[in-house]
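Researcher: Quick one. two chains, 303 residues in total.
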Amino acid sequence: MDEIDLALIQALKNDARTPFRDIARKLKVSPDTISNRYRKLQKNGVIQGSTVLINPEKIGYNSVIILMIDVEPEYSSWILNELIKMVDIIVVTETIGDCDLMAIGVTRNFEHLSDLTLRISNIPHIKNVQVSFLIRYMKIYPEYFII
Amino acid sequence: MERIKLDKTDIKILRTLQRDARTPFKNIAKQCDTSTDTIIRRFNKMKKMGIISGTIILLNPKKLGYEHIASFSINANYARINEVVEFIQEIPETLHCVQSIGRYNVFSIALFKDFIRLNEVRDLIKRHSDVNNVSTNIWVGEVLLCPENFEFKEGT
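Model:
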């Protein structure tokens, strides 16, 4: 990756909809160069996609929650996939540390939270679920994520 | 908390951009059977109202030299929580750091180029005078991300 790739990434990190034409002008290259570089970065897996940052508070959610989950090891992958299918679970990952899986979710109210944790606890082969609430949200999607 | 009403078009815009934030507004307009101007206006309105806080590209940290993603769940002296959060936010590897309620009262996510640096940062946090306890979880394997799991109820 060269300075053009890095500058392209930088421009899109702040606003994924920045027109290639504008980036090209700023970097003094042709728009085609930028669009080729973008395609190449996608092909190489550097850029995994793009998304819109939504403020959960504004659409009726009142909490972002972190779930630390212990599972029977052989079922880890399967449970991971069951979790990401659940509405209101945004991110899941396997971890090494004090728990086996971590998930980030959003809830509307305590009843909803209760329902969500119950649904999760009912997934077979889950041993334990620990929930924390985040105060003063972070962005739901940090810039870096492997999809 | 104010409830903002979203209609079919707003939801279509959000769902489409969740999957690909670079989708031309013209394409969304066609799908909604409306004008491009309407879509632009709705998008800007949602930005102004704070529903949308921006658009970002999703990057693979491994391709950019970051070997590890880790989260720290921290138990800090409650009276000094803001100081601890600020301290962690100052660490360059930190992506996010916020207060939490639960077994731990601070939560943070960070990216590391190598394990040595991960350990250094973990140590740094542990040695802070207002930190009681640190639980480190290294995110391994695939991080599954599903933005579409945000539910928008029409008229909500």
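Strands of chain A lie at 47-54, 63-71, 89-97, 101-107, 126-135.
Researcher: Thanks, that's what I needed.
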